[in-house]
Amino acid sequence: MIFLDAAATTPVRREALEAMWPYLSGEFGNPSSHHTLGEAAAAALAGARSGVAKVLNCRAGEVTFTSGGTEADNLAVKGIALARQAADPSMNRVVISAIEHPAVEESARYLERVHGFVVDVLPVDGDGLVSVDALTDVLRPETALVSIMYANNEIGSIQPIEALAAAAREGGVPFHTDAVQAAGWLPLDVKALGVDALSMSGHKLGAPKGSGVLFTKGRLRVEPLVHGGGQERGKRSGTENVAGAVALSTALALSSAEQPEQASRAAGLRDQFIERILASVPGAFVTGHRLQRLPSVASFCFPGTSGESVLLELERLGVVCSSGSACAAGSDAPSPVLLALGIAPEIAQTAIRFSFTSSVTDSELEQAADAVETAVGRVRNLASPQAG
Ligand code: PLP
Fold this sequence. Notes:
By secondary structure, the chain is an alpha/beta fold. 51% of the residues are buried. Helix 1 (14-20) packs antiparallel against helix 8, helix 3 (69-87) runs parallel beside helix 4 and helix 8 (242-280) crosses helix 12 (362-383). It has 2 domains: 14-254, Aspartate Aminotransferase, domain 2, CATH 3.40.640.10; 259-382, Aspartate Aminotransferase, domain 1 (Alpha-Beta Complex). It is globular, with a radius of gyration of 21 Å. The protein contains 12 helices and 12 strands. A 7-stranded mixed beta sheet has the order 2-8-7-6-5-3-4, sandwiched between helices. The site of pyridoxal-5'-phosphate has 15 residues, from helix 3.
């Protein structure tokens, strides 16, 4: 099987598994316990936090471990907006882009539904990019937060995060970015990016599912969503997932050390793959920005097919990928991300995303490209046999 669905999830790296193993077995303590087992767990958690902080170029105290990207996004969007409103009741707007992951979009909708916020949704252009001027124009004195993703999970387009964060800063509004897909592929230095908050998820970069991080800058207040014993400096109660945090920190450190080399290698393979598909599959086109995209994501529409049928055909041919985001799987509705790019619904339903891990090889992508040509041809023949 050729696995080209790494944007959905990745296998746990051996190094991450080995690093976490002691905290699932002999050193199984609760970091809040005042005995040697507990202290060992607390030390491991502190080490994991410092490891993440090193990659993000922030202080360890600015790192909150969560149960994953979804929780990190929820904590950022709801937690920051509600804390700002608690300090100043006039704060009642949040800004997001039209192509956010549901973890951000639904958090903003919750603020609208339950707390009376106004959600300003910034459009994207045909490449999936947000305009910095449009952000500047939409900011109001009542804007509590801007949340714009670093890189999109369906089309891979990378936003001009430094410029967007600078525009928000100019307007005096905290800026959060969902870096779940960017992590492992793009620089994550929060100071260089100029962001106030950033979310990540362990399982996209070789750590287990159920581990995540939210960075929040300095004294930026965050209203907790999970109440209890006050762990994670009161931002996120609950006994910490020590093993998950250790694995995330290990996988993040490795992927960030490998990042420049792996990213340029993957980008080269991605471009060859894209060229090959465009040359061999009539009518195919790339979704998202052609170059300003994740090195690991190649996404297309294949008009005259159905994405689901091509997906099934590809799986028969030994290639596993995705017809949209995993989160939207099972839904027949065309992807809101593709509709936001201006793609017609019937064409959006023909979308396929190929996403690689850094260990992808040239020959795997060649075989996958052959399979795509065959699969699309078969599905088109079934749709209109006389044409074939
Ligand atoms: N944000 C983006 C951009 C994602 O791609 C995902 C997962 O696909 C998430 C958030 C949610 O992360 P998790 O699966 O860790 O909850």
